[in-house]
Design brief:
Length: 149
């Protein structure tokens, strides 16, 4: 984490955290961005889908998806998506199925999710730089391949 502590982000307005979110360094990077006023886009590969969240420097922290001592990050994220969908009466059945199926092995890492996430990142970055509206966390972007949400 020394590399993160020494990180100078002056002049940077936006960053993409496309790590696996499986260790402290990932969230330490987010904290460093928050301290230096950098907006962070979180891009997560969910196998056949992509999840993206945009975190404002003074906004709700994305790290709240995973509590200390909780499930694997992707399963915690899947539960967050499922609960969000249920709250807004927009269930996401494929996420619930994935949670059941992958609760011990995590979501599969497929190239499909990477391509979807990359496309969304480019779109979100363009919207941010052009001053267009984006969804900020706890709202998010979720895009599965060939699935209705």
């Amino acid at each position: 984490m020394e590399d993160v502590d020494a990180c100078d982000l002056s002049g940077i307005r936006y960053a993409v955290n496309a790590t696996l979110h499986d260790n402290e360094a990932s969230f330490a990077f987010d904290e460093k961005c928050k301290e230096q006023g950098v907006t962070v886009i979180h891009a997560v590969n969910l196998g056949k889908a992509a999840f993206l969240a945009v975190e404002k420097p003074k906004g709700y922290p994305f790290s709240e998806v995973v509590k200390k001592g909780s499930d694997d990050f992707r399963c915690s994220l899947g539960k967050y998506i499922s609960q969000y969908g249920m709250f807004w009466q927009m269930p996401v059945p494929w996420v619930d199925e994935a949670i059941r199926h992958y609760s011990e092995a995590s979501f599969p890492q497929l190239g499909i999710g990477v391509y979807i996430a990359a496309g969304y990142c480019a779109n979100i970055l363009a919207n941010l730089t052009e001053g267009k509206e984006v969804r900020y966390f706890p709202k998010f972007y979720l895009s599965p391949l060939l699935e209705e949400i």
